[in-house]
Protein 1
Amino acid sequence: MLVEITLIVTAAKLFFMPLYRSTDFEVHRNWLAVTNNRTIDQWYYDETSEWTLDYPPFFAWLEYGLSHIAKVFDPEMVKLENLNYASDMTVLFQRLSVIVLDFVFIYGTKSCSQLLNEGNLLVFILLVTNPGLLMVDHIHFQYNGFLFGILLLSISNMITSNFIATAFWFAVLLNFKHIFLYVAPVYVVYMLRAYCFTVSSNDGVHTPWYSFSLTNLIKLALTVISVFCLSFGPFIDQLPQVFSRLFPFKRGLCHAYWAPNFWALYNIADKILQKLCLKFGIPVAITEASMTGGLVQEFEHAVLPTITPSIAFAITAISMIPALIKLWHLGADRGYRCLSFVRCLTLCATCAFMFGWHVHEKAILMILIPLSFLSVLGDIDCNLFLFISVVGNYSLFPLLYPKNLLSIKIFILLTHIAIAFCYIPALYELIRIKPHKKRGFMILPGLKRFQSLYLYGFMAVCIYENSIHTFLGFDKTLPFLPLMITSVYCALGVCYFWFYYYYYFLTFNLSRVPTLMTSRSAQYEKKVT
Amino acid sequence: MGKRADPDKFTVTKEALLPGLFFALFLRWCVAAYPYSGYKKPPMYGDYEAQRHWQEITVQTQVSHWYRNTTQNDLQYWGLDYPPLTAYHSFLIGLVADWLDPESVRLFASRGYESDQHKTFMRWTVFLSDLYFYVTAALCICIDAERILGKYHSNVFKRTDIATTFFLLYPGLILIDHGHFQYNCVSLGLFLWASFFIIAIQNDTLATICFVLALNYKQMELYHALPFFIYLLRKCFMCVPNKGRFSHIIHRFNKLAIAVISTFIIIWYPLLNSWDDVFQVLHRLFPVKRGVFEDKVSNVWCSANVFIKLKYVYNNEEMIRMCFLCTIMAALPSCIDFFFRINRKKFVLCLINVSLAFFLFSYQVHEKSILLVAIPVVMHMPEDPFMCFWFLLVSTFSMLPLLLKDGLLIPFLCTSLIYLSFYSIILKLSNKDAGILSFLNADTVYKAANPMANHNSVILKLLSTNFFFSLQGMFWLGLGTLLVEPPPRYPDTFPLLISMYSCLHFIFFLVYFTHQQISLPTCLPIKIKVKKN
């Protein structure tokens, strides 16, 4: 069945080829040209286009490899001075390169879903039909698919306890795109606990220090360091330049379109307070530029304290620490700890998304993808996945703003969530001893009443955004209001998700029997009894 | 009778219904993102411009002028050539267009009006019409097919969710309606509703009304008229009580006649000022002068035209007579069989045969008319999946030259690939060991549809081999069309080859389906329960 589903999804991707594409298309075309025409020591210095190379070296190498194939399609494509060049062959080549590289994602998905006893096909379908990924990669144009494929490969290796392979794949991933640094602490903590401490205690609290294995640590370190050497080695002379490209701090707290995170709520609170203060005659600084204006990169809050990058990073780090400590303790149990790892991964991705500096809305995929895997492994994961998959994917809608894409966006999302809502809750119905009471009116399967109500709100948001707003004539005076409404409404959902999932993870107790097990944990159970 | 005895209580499989439905709708929008016929091709543009022009005419001129050549209505430029219901539909859409974007329906000034926004609007009108007429009818037919089977059937093709999705994924209709741009979904949807009333509910009056509506949307529905006529006529004479026999028949007949005539009158009333008007409309609907076929159609005349130039041998009059005779001859076996050995299962088969005969032999056929055959075949799918699937692939393939002209190559490939993969998934659902290529094997397919039946394995092997070679032929012909430059003397080589190749298939299918219909027994076999003592 996997082959057929892969074919169907690939066919759907082919459909998207001539559709709208964002400036990221030109970004990647430019990188093809830069890597092809410049010598290695010039890659990170070239400034012909405004879209300079700002991904780690492996990605540059990938573009270098692709550029040789690109020449066959259209030699004009790899010329540096051909800015904004988009011939039919260029489009075909670039789109095909994403589709072909996506087979890495499909392979990663397969290796992850194979580990499950039940619902493996379901997880496979959920992952490959992820509408966010399809929209971002195949319409908006980016190469996230194969990066997440590598992430899934490292997760599947972690579940089967191939720690060296995990370390290798994750290091490779980091050298493709450094955004994954946000979840690196989870890997570090978990590998330390599970691999470097060879003995596990039953109570899950005490860690026997004497069992620390230095050899294992050295093995891990060697793997990681060698990957990094391979990647950054050729650029050893120009490391400061490379790093200044990789970590630009000139950008603002929020992206042009506010990612639906804590800062979106913070900004809107600031706006409201500013309005209130003006009304009651309290003098405040009046900021001219609207924060959703798109072009403004840095701005000052009017009432609330202005956030600097260091504050944002401090909050992100602090918010992760409790989860990491909990992971350390949960890591003591051999049978179940790999699931705790994936949960913590999701949680830390959420923390980064919530409090990170200049977060892109696409980063929500970091939450959705591991969570789709978890959705068949516990009923609260299922509940939260159903919830966040609607919120997260909807929050990506503004990325594809042309009006004629609206129906494609809506139906791709509806197809995905219909699969999720029809099949995932049904898995838990089977194993429940007492059959569930009949669902109430208007309550979606697997969700609670207020969660369902919140999700119904998206219909209202969507209708307002696409028809009523223009109808009322606000599109001239308040052009960014719909974007703001979407991001704030989604931010409420993401915040709720973060609270609930954090609470669930911190209070997680091993005495709670896992509802559905991975094959590996099942094997372990057999060994014990 | 089983489940039908209690019509209010039935359960159907619906677990994959919503995902499948949404996916089918999603696919429609994917195709809709591509260009339509006549996209940026002045001065005549294509079907899209025709539809837009009709909105302009119907909104801006009086009803009585719609079908006439006046100073405001130039019939040479995409004059209305469909029956009044199409005109009303255009009028309705035109009113909305007038409200949203008056520029798009301004008289004369709007000719060749094209913009992204307008395209989105037009696509929405097709989508909503599709949803309202076609999707609902397909859903009802599929639900009914499973309902009468009861819970413990094993035909995976009759599971409501799968049948509906498969019904809606048929590439031909999606490509023509949402890509090329037409409103076939409306007439075909009404036709499906009429068939639904006959197959499922057996409400003959409603069926008549729906069919008359379909006929008044597109005159091409005449392809389906014979089976409806025979069925309804025959029903008048069936199971009549001996007492008052004559009056009973008259009563039934009158009911249908009143339904037909009143529907016709209501639809035509705004146009009926004089008999002359009616003739003018009829003249518009049946343009005799336009020749026996347009472009390259995969019917007999177009194929014969390669060897004998029909235009020089026969004049139009003779040609019409010959077409008429041949069509009747081809449709007759199926019609006679249906009249004398009536059986509700034969209804769909008779529809297939008659419409196929019309497609192959009648006068003034478009390549898109194959949809009129394809939809009954889609309905027949759960009974005979292997042959129907083959037919549907060929029917989509026969439209390839048209689709290429519109720039719909990628949608053609993708929808066909998706259709094939979905078919393969269905086979796998019923048989876990089925591989990705098992759809080539007729035996596996028939086992999935009906595990109990015994099929003749020699014939099945023969069919499988033929299917394989037929697919090969389609593949190489398609590849040739795309890559090989035809000799300059014969620029139409590949479209002609495609239409002849498809025509051969269609003749074979006509024979096959006629044979299938005749070999069905008169009455449905009644299962007799044997009491075990």
Protein 2
Amino acid sequence: MTSSLLPRQALWWLIGSQLYVALPHFSRVPLWILAVYAGAALWRLQMYRHRADMPHKLVRLMLGLGLGGSVIVSYQTFVGLDPMVALLLVASALKGVESVRVKDGYVLVSLGLFIMTTQFLYDQQLPTMLYGVIGTLLLVISLIAINQRPGASLGRRECFLALRMLGLAMPMMVVLFVLFPRIDPLWSVPSKTQQGTTGMSDVLRPGDVTRLGRSSEVAFRVQFDGSIPPNRELYWRGMVLNQFDNRAWRTLEWKDHPAIERQLERPTLEGDSLHYHVIMEPSMQNWLYALPYAESDSRGVFETWDFRLAVAKPLESTFSYKVVSQQPTALQPVLSQWRRETELAFPPGLNPRTRAWVAEQLAAVEGVDDFILRVLRYFREQPFFYTLEPPAISDDDFVDQFIFNSRRGFCEHYAYSFVVIMRMAGIPSRIVGGYQGGEVNDVNNTLVVRQFDAHAWTEIWLENRGWVRVDPTAAVSPARIELGLESALAEEERFLTDSLLSAYRFRNVSIINWLRLRYDAAAWRWQSFIVGFDSGEQINLLKLWFGEIKVGWFVAALLGSWIAILGPLTWWMTRSRRSSDRLPTEKAFAALCRILARRGIDRQIGETPLHFLTRVEAQLAANDPLVIELEKLAVRLYAPVSGSIE
Amino acid sequence: MKLTGAFYSIYRNWLSRRLPAARSITLEQRRLFIFPTAAGFFFLATLLIMLLTAINYQNNMAYGLTFWLAMLFIVAVHFTHGNLLGLTMTAVAAEAVFAYQQSGFTLRLSGGGKRAGHYSVRLLWPDAEQVVDVGAGQGRTVTLHQAVGQRGYFLPPRLRIESVYPLGLLRCWSFAYFDCQALVYPQPLPAPDVLISVNEKGTLGTSDSSGLDDLAGFRAYQVGDSARHIDWRAWARGQALQTRLFSAPSREEHWLDWNDFDGGNTEQRLSWLCWRIIQLDASGDDYGLRLPNVEIPLAAGDRQREVTLRALALYDMQPPGTGYHL
């Protein structure tokens, strides 16, 4: 059986479904793999037209080894998801060339299923799911095509059959999805690379946030239990950058801290608390975004010494967590000596003009508050511009250049300059990176925060008040904080230039916007119920249903649901194929034979109906109604029809 | 599935009890067997790898796809089984042939349901294989060929009906013994040419009724010549064995007599008679057949040919068995 040839239409379905499942990967594999695909497709076409032969076994082996080696060379490794995907794609292209037999078809289908699974590891959003459902359907239709009688055509019936089978499998899949225990990873798996992920990083150079302003990709989604706070209060803290080194601001890591500084000092809290649920897209970073001061009891989330939320490993897939935020009376009201020194450190030789300017200002002010207001007033009153296209400053004396010369910058330029000025004035300060604002979706009361909402602001430490947020960008462009980036950059064309086809660009068209908001609401449900479903949620759900979790309940629910679905299916199949509804002609013939047997004319074993007819004719009269009826039926039923022969 | 010795015979006995021979067989629940194919096991192995991927990457969509396909496999059990369920096969005709030739067995397949058909149904005999589709509410006729053995009744071997449709992940199969026997005529062998069909019109055959007509001459004895035509007198004189030749009869009526063919054993005689019948049938003359205990009167045509050949086929045979002797 395995040696029989693939039916022709099956080959096209197989190759088509292979291309379909490989397509989303093409953007992240080296270009030469696309060339391998094109070459393989061309070769297969020539084979189909009998213009080329299948390459010799040795050639295929060499090709396989050579291309596998090329993957390893181009990725420098074969461990990891990216090289694995590349190897799978090469394997599927080569298998496509040599697929002539039925068993090759099964290998291709399995490869296709696995390639589709790897796509899910990169992205679990709603469109990927829909794409995957169609891919599964195509692969199942391919399986049916493989198993068709040679020469049979594949039409609507086969497509509906695939749909019906997948449809019947779906309820049982849901049961298994809910009940299957979510166990921890069995072994550590190769990580995904950071390649292609947009988002904030823990190193900030002027221009880093600016780049994010061109992307409308979703960073995270939030659902508040109550009403959504106004835009100007939505400062999503992600990371704290406290060390200046080599023209960039960096985060001090856990290992950079002395042991005593690693402890979290819990502040006293006041006012109302905000409860919300965040679902983050994969960021490849280990920090989470939340409104200060945030606490979370979600699995795997911990709070850091600088009042952030983080997880142990970089987020390679969607992550969901619940947060409670409440206003602190003071964050870290007492600053340790080490911390004070760290948050004041700045290379002494840099930015001499700024240093002189700070000294001049300090002489004129009365107290710290006055100084800060004066600096902010300077930003507001001097001709500073808020722009996505700031001129590049490659000078070591960045702040000198920025505040006295170019004066055109994005949020990180202002935060950078402000922190340097504060530190020069002896006020502990640091840059905070994260997102500001977000788009409210009224359909399900969620907030969508996109990459262009990325923002950098500052925190300064004041006696008795602890760390206080100061956003110098607000002084330059109040619209950014009140209304969002788009209003602040109404005249600029660079906004969203990296997201040309994003629905967000067309939100002024009302029908598109209507659809977009509903889609976002669906995406929230998808992300929160399906993608975010983990062992914690599972246990909660099962406790809700069964009261307590017992293995017996588990098994009973699983089997019970299967029986509930498969029982009717079996009954329906048996019923619909009951042999009692045979063809009317056959029933009539059998009945006639019984009548004749009663008259003493038995149809003999192995006797052809036509021969039987001649015998009956000999015994009864030729014009006997029974004979005429028998002749009619015999001719209609058993006229020599040759069966199809392979 | 080669099981050895006693175990295999137990299996065959069980199978023949479970699946008795019949003219018309409907594939019911209890007749059908189902098991994953090699491709099915390969598919399950792929699912295992996908499950490990889902667990290690904690990826719910990978879990979902894996579970969906696993449940598809279970649904496929029902669909593969349902693809054969209710298929009715009726043995319509078994072509009568000469010994050691191929006989065509005609089966009528009809669908069990009005809505669901039976697709890619594979019918397997040792010598023959056919793949057929029986559309919903349709029927179709299939002829399978199988080499037969000696004369008499030939019982077709166990027919295997199998299908892996629709997904190829599972194989559903059944066996059918058709109570449909092919009549096998003796193998025609050229009869010794000295023998003359004898005009015996109006007289009952007696042992000396032949050979008294016009003596035409002699020729050297050949193996297979009837002893009654040997010129014993010449042999007694010390001459070589000679066979007496008689002139051909002028009338177109021939009697084929068992006793004229006493130069061979039973099977040889039947083979020669068979050959003669084929020749006479081709010439269009009337002929009759005399066998011990059977006499078939003079006639011509297909019917006569069949009646005489049937008589030869069943000469000295037990009545056809009712079941299979496995």
Protein 3
Amino acid sequence: MRKEDTTARPVAARLEVENLSLQFGGVKALDGVSLDVAPGSITALIGPNGAGKTSAFNAISGFYKPKTGTVRLDGVDITAVPARSRAKLGLARTFQNIALFRGMTVLDNIKLGRHAHLKSNVLDALFYYGRARREEMQLREEIERDVIDFLELDHIRNVPVAILPYGLQKKVELARALAMRPRILMLDEPVAGMNREETEDMARAILDVRDEWGVTVLLVEHDMGMVMDISDHICVLNFGRRIAAGTPAEVRSNEDVIRAYLGSAAEAPRVEAA
Amino acid sequence: MKIGTAKQSYGADEAIFKTDTQRVWFAILLAILVLYPFIASGYWMFLAVLVMINIISTTGLNILTGYTGQVSLGHAAFMALGAYTVAFLDGRHDTPVLLNLVAAGSMAAAIGVLVGLPSLRIKGLYLAIATLAAAVILGFVFLNWTSVTGGIRGLNVPTAKIFGFELATAETLYWLVMPITVLAVLLARNLFRTRVGRAFIAIRDRDISAEIIGISLLQYKLTSFALSSFYAGVAGGLWAYLFRVVRPESFPAEASIFYLAAVIVGGAGTIIGGIFGATFMTLVPELLKLSAQLVTPWWPDASIYIAPIRLIVFGLLIVGFLIFEPMGLAEIWRRIRRFFALWPFRT
Amino acid sequence: MERWAQLDWIDLVETSLAGLGTGSLMALTGVAFVVIYKATRVINLAIGEMMMIGAFVFYGFAAGFQLPFWLALPLTLLVSAVVGGVIERTMIRPLLKDNPVSVFMVTIGLTSILIGMVELIWTAEPRRLPEFLPQAPIFIGEALVPAKTGYSFLIAAAGIAVMLLVFAFWRGGVALRATATDRAAASSVGINVPGVFAFSWMVAAMVAALAGVLVGSVGGISSSMGLFGLSVFVVVIVGGLDSIVGALIAGLFIGWLEAMVGRLFGGEFKLLATFSILLLVLVVRPYGLFGTHEIERL
């Protein structure tokens, strides 16, 4: 199925996080967290509220500067690479609160995902000639074929994002991340706030993305049913530390995890519905 | 009535004018622009040239404020930069008109990048105040750098000469300003069909996620400042050729607010909005003058009150559009078109 | 330079004192700005014009109707409060849920409306306010302070002190602070948030009007006196948009700076100096010297 032109799908990446620590003022958000995401796997990062999942995400995607620790993509240390340059390296992410560009159409939002891969400059753009024209045409074709068809967004491509229902917005954000041609896709609570049907739809989309695009997926999610269903590997955080890691079955039976989630009142007052 | 159009290729779907109807309308518009000088004269030609200059400037501010979301309270200062550049080059060195205009734009763009630099650290309203500060400082330079700017007396601007023709009047200047305006608007339209324009809008809508998807805020904010100021500089240069004198008070702070008002009233973030806004706001004072003349027989003092009434009307237009029609005249226009597209069926 | 030829200590002290006098008025106007910003997060670009309106209303009462000072001033404050309330209700509240830039632009429109109204009623001619402050100059050591400057400084200081006390102790002030911290939480503990918004605009309009009367009594009034607001923006940005103490300190500093620069280099350098300071602060410390640094959330 794979074509050997510009549309060739990128190769899944390995992500290694070692000894990551992050501090806000006096609060330790992350305390020596390590994580190994195998290429082509679906890995989930779970934990009770405030466990540091989103902080870990932000640190991995370059949004927060970690105090210590390294982030490696296929063995290359990217800890010091600024967030915007990570897009080009093949690291794409979505946000917990949808971070789409609300004033723009679905199509333009998705096109933006490819921004870092395009080259036309202001002058090309003003005259819409040569490189700009070529690039834009090719971009449109690829996006229609690889993303819009794939995620079945044809009917809404010219609709402004702001008026779409929540579930579709989440899907458009996934589409935009895919347009970045990621080698590793980071999804921050992809199904939060969705109903059963939307959740299943999204879970299927994530599995399809992994299978068809061959990307590595790292996700943070509260919906335990979904996490257990689709993950190959799960890493559990609590109070900024990693307390367990393994297959869904291993994690489910881990004592520390059960305690973290159900909580012996004194240690973990916040109880999370699993 | 028209239901929809089937496009054969993505290219057709990405075009500026997507349907034959639109192409026909554009051709008609161009024809009107070419024929206008043959039916209008004198004051109406002057107004037309002024409107077009304001369209160029407003489109420039629209790129920065409407599309990129960076509010500027110093736009007029960039027009002044362009105007002074033209006055200086043409007056002292007798350089060709087109070169002067490009220089005017480039000069404004260069300073625009400088003024845009704080936008990397500060946002929104703080940035607006910073642009105001920059405008105050530029005004100081215009007033006090007498050897170049002529100080308080300003500079006289020679007649624009192009290919041996003297463009001494609005009638002749029209043929310089009109094509430049059409070009400026089309270029701006093109911009927003490409990655550069999308990056601008992304920064406006959500700068943090723009950065995550690989948009360099530094590069694009400065690009937006440069483009916006370039447009202002060219507009200012043309303004200099129209009024033939440039003084420190030619572009006061109120002028910056005028362009901001034009962007808001026309519709921020749409090209056609800039055109509507600039036209409308330029004609409002004229309408006021006209109505003052009409009522003078019954109210002899009417003309005294034009200036304050103009201020009030400007203010009310800004406030009213923000509250009741935040998408501006462009949105009203869209509704009208939609109505007629489906006419005679009610929607 | 000739300007510096007759410079001596007395001269510098007098210039400084005059500058502090102007600075106290900037600080007072700055406080009006801060009150609005604290409660509603609105950057009110029309603060200078609200000051101007206050000054002209006072002129109307004191010169037009020939009312004595002790009657004209309270009436002015009352009218100003109404004007502030009307502005909030008709122009600001409809947009509070929109993005802050829209509201900001509304205040730009407001400047234009207010200037137009003043020119419509009183024309663009500059005017003098009736004298209401004692005339005998004040001496501090050997330095002379013009009476108006001295007394307006004292009144402004009293005004700022009242505002500080109100914010610290009075229930309404506390409600305002609570709203500033968290609208949703304030509303959930029973604070009438729209009421607080309207109230903050009314208070700010009164404070601005008081500043306008004082500024007018020193330098006369005109439809362009709102330009004073330009220096006030510098003051609140340097001091921090949400800090009354910041407005106070920055006001005195900017007033002093403008006076010194004016004395040493000439009046045309005043705005250059303040706006250069402004750019510097914006780039180095955008939230001001005493402002709250808001952490950006994803």
